Amino acid sequence: MPNNQRLFLFRFFVIALFSFALFCDKPKGMAQGSSLQSLPPLSVKDSTMYCFLGELQDQAKSRIIALQGDINFLGAAIEGKYHYNGGVGIVEIKGKIAKDGSVSINEVTSAGEFSYNPDHKEKITAKITGKLDRAQGVITGSWVSQDGKTTFPCTMRLVARYEKKKHPKLVVSTAYPVFVSPEYAVLNDSLARWMKASFDSSVVSVKSLIEEYKGMNDLSFKPEERLSETNDVGVYHLTPTWVSMSNLAYTDGGGAHGNYGYDGITWQKRGNAWKRVKLQELFTSDTAAYYKKINELLFAGLRKRQASFVMDGSVKDLRDGLRNGYQSWVMRPSGITFIFPPYAVASYAEGSLEVFVPWKALKDYLRSDGLAGEFLK
Predict the structure, then answer these.
(1) What pTM did the predictor assign?
(2) d(CA 315, CA 296)
(3) Which CATH number fits domain 39-160: 3.30.470.20, 2.40.128.120, 3.10.20.90, 1.10.10.410?
């Protein structure tokens, strides 16, 4: 294995271990859930990404359609993505902001991890028009289907700002959510300590690599520009009682290419404390049965994605990773997503692969009193 790959695997193992140590314990004192109207304000800054919660008011059926995702404010442009809490797809959002705060946002369907289809073509499925209140961090307006037949009042409120820290000279950075809502702000200290430790570790690592490359005769190779480490934490799904996030760590040690890996992190509120959830806690005590079922579903999904190591027989069984906690996963109300980094089930050129498994496919194996048990009702 090349040195840069060994370095990456060691660093990612340390980060995953550190994150597990931080979040296996508390934090304590998170407040109970609140409506969008009661959430505190979070002012909008330009060139900044935010996590938001949204609602469509279906007044004809007296119901709320909840959605959530990330939104990036880029001057006069808006970019991002969201998912409907009860749906099975991810949509992108692309739009514009006028000087008076008027917004026009297109909802654009994509292949996403829920409904992988290599032949799928992007198309606009809805449009949100309204106003952005920069001081309050809220967009209010209307969601209108592309055919114009369905209209819902719409509210999108910011609940977290992604804090990004960059080294002034090295290609080292971290990004993570900072929550303004008291529902989730209790996580801020732990996230900040975790990301500071990651940032400091990356600075030491990259500086050490730069020293190693100083004696090179290749003048075209500029180690200060090429050698890099980044660590980004993103919100996958938020509820008042559980939170699921994904951690992406990237390292370029000067080899043929950099490498990256994922660590899924899910916590559940238990009393006044938050505890990290293990995969085994979602399922019944018949471990052999649910590992067998998940293994079958993952291989079916990976074959659909034409994952090369699965197709050529190099990877024949994924149960060891499931048993030992090596397999990254994140969850939403619609199901659980397993994330495979490069080289896990396919070549680097194929990138990371995701396999979505709906809860209904695992209903015979879920604990009724477990975190995912609520989705059986």
Answers:
(1) 0.85
(2) 13
(3) 2.40.128.120
